[in-house]
Structures are given as structure tokens and as C-alpha cells.
Amino acid sequence: YNCNIFLKREDLQTVRSFKIRGAYHKIMNSIETHRENKNLPVVTVSAGNHAQGVSLTCNSLNIKHHIFLPENTPLQKINRIKYFGKEYLTLHLHGHNFDESLSAANTFCEKNKSIFVHPFDDPDVIIGQGTVATEIYEDIKPDIIISPIGGGGLISGVGLYSKSFNKDCKILGVEPENADSMKQSIANNKITTISNLDTFVDGASVKTAGKNTFEICKKVVDDIFIVGNNKLSYNMIDMYQNDGIILEPAGALSISCLDMIDKEKLEGKNVVCILSGGNNDISRYPVIMEKSLFYQDLKHYFIVSFGQRPGELKKFINNILGKHDDITRFEYLKKNNKDFGAVLIGIELQDSKDINNIIEKMDDIGFQYTKINEEDLLHTYLI
């Protein structure tokens, strides 16, 4: 990119994300400004990372706390929350996304006097997240800071701090595809809820942006980019294999938009990418690997009609596949009749161009097939 790229590695925090900053600042400020709050329990809702920050803070201060999580929160994050919270923690799993968990947490707070620590839409939390920018400016003078956006707490804090020191520094946000509540809200000039939320990027899948963060982002964010899950997965794998950095999907958002920015705007600049977190469940890697291969056009699925006679698979392997192509899935779906059966075949390539050869050979030899693309309904049911 012909520029200086700096990585702000929040994955190196004790809780492996930036969220400890806002959680600690909010809880300490609540206790110090209102001493009567010292004996109250803390309540929060989180997709995982914020909860770890709250749990670590509460455990260190001997404070009982209640954490509400979506039911689809990765087990790795749940276990880490338990590790940090220990005997002071009560865990509640409610809803399928952040907003449903938030509703359950609000209901709990209405019935129980407590200190509610919002994961992003709270002035104290936003100020705490802004310390990321403080540390950036201690080391360099950035021209561009790229931050992931979930609810908007991190980019709000970073943007407020940065613009107060250097109005020329561009603040760029990145959201996941089908989880871009902030970009849509700013475009519509009103808080907009995502109706069909994609939760693959669990740390940044927020249906509705916060009221405070929305108002701040309108003033301090210069542009927002949208990144698809496949591209995100590719960059996660790339960072691990080439740099040894383990990132969760949200943590890879900032680096995933670099090639979407006008190269002339990057040339010669100091560009900071905030790697927001590294709490990734290892059990998710097979899915992440496959999405990375999809992004590179190295993984393809077909439904192929196979004759019900000996040697049909051998014929397919010998005549259709190249020497570097690999069958990663082979599954009979059903027998259409006594002569033919439908087979689901997954093929992994070393060169993306080889898919054209495979399709051409199937046409020439006369294999009946249907290629399954990601956007197809069949992909949802079969893959």
C-alpha cells in the first residue's frame, strides 16, 4: 500500500480485547462518584469480550455481578468469562443476539437495584475505550485510524480523542456485511435496526446502534466500509499463518478494508489498524477455513448425477479432476432411479482457474451437474 501500517494490538490485553478499558472506567467511576454504589451488584450484557472485562474488574474488586449473553456465544468466550468472574459471577444465557440479551438484562435491572454497565452506549465506557487513541498518539502521529464497529463505543471514544488533537486524522469504521447498523443509521440520519442480522462476527453483530454512539459517530467518523464474512475469514487465516496473530472475526475487520480504500489516500500515510480482539473459539476454524477458501475461489460444491454402476467415481476422478484437485466431500443424497443417483461433491483447488477446466470436462464427458453457489438456497441446506 506504500504507507506505514501500524497494528494496535488489543488482542494482547489480559482479556484479549479492548473491552477491559471501558468496563474498568465505568465501574470505577460509578463507585468513586457514588460511594453508595459500592455494595451494589454489577449487571451487563455482552457478546463475550465486554463481559470478560466486567468480570475481571468485578473479581479484582470483590463485586458480585450478573452477565447476560446471547445463547450463540462461543463456548471459548463463556469459559473465559467464568474464569475471570469466578465465585462473584452469575451467568445468564438469553436470546439469539445482543439486542435480545439486552432486553433481558434491562428487565433484570428494573427488578433489582444494580449498576448497569452498557457495553458501548455509555459516556464512561466510551471514554474508557478512547484510551486506545491516547496510546496511539503517545507513539505516533496517525493520519488514518481504522476501527471496527459493533455498537460504536470503540470508534466513538477513539474518534472523540483523535479529533480533539488532530482534526485532519481520518477516522474510518468497518462493519460486517448484514450487521452494518451504524452505516445504515448514518445514511438514514436516524437509528436504524438491522432486520436480518448476520451473527458470524459475534463481537460486532449489533442490531441497533446506540443513541450516544450514533450521535458521536455522525460527527467524528469520516467513512464506514462493509466487509463480507469470506474476506474476513481469509484475513484471519492470513494473519495467523504469516504473522502468528490469532484474531476473532471482529478483530480482523480493520485490516480487511485496507484494499477498499483509495490507494492515493493511503500513500505515505501513517495508518493504524485496531485489532480489537483475539477471543476466537478453535471449534470455529473449520468454518472459517472454508469461508477463506470460498473467498479465494478455491472451494466449490456440485450436485453430480452418477450412474449406478461400478467405476463411476473412478471415471470422475481420472477424467475430471486435475492432479492438484482434491475431493473434500462425497455424499450420496438420493437415488433418482435405479440407473442414477445424486451426489454432493466438494472440491478444493490449488489454483482458482482450475474450476473452469473441471466444468469444461464435465460438459465434454456428459456428467449432469448443478453448481451450488453460496447465495443459492441449496447451499444453506446442504453445505
What does this structure look like?
With 383 residues, the protein is an alpha/beta fold. It has three domains: 4-13 and 124-289, Rossmann fold (3-Layer(aba) Sandwich); 19-122, 3-Layer(aba) Sandwich (Rossmann fold); 297-382, ACT domain (Alpha-Beta Plaits, 2-Layer Sandwich), CATH 3.30.70. The protein has 16 helices and 13 strands. It has helices at 19-33, 49-60, 75-85, 98-111, 123-129, 131-139, 153-165, 181-188, 211-220, 229-243, 253-256, 263-266, 285-295, 312-319, 354-365, 377-382; strands spanning 4-9, 42-45, 65-69, 89-93, 115-117, 144-148, 170-176, 223-227, 270-275, 299-307, 326-335, 340-348, 368-372. The strands form three sheets. The protein has a five-stranded parallel beta sheet. A four-stranded parallel beta sheet has the order 4-3-2-5, with helices on both faces. Strands 11-12-10-13 form a four-stranded antiparallel beta sheet. The radius of gyration is 24 Å and the shape is globular. Homotetramer. Its EC number is 4.3.1.19.
Overview in brief:
The chain is of the alpha/beta class. It is built from 16 helices and 13 strands.
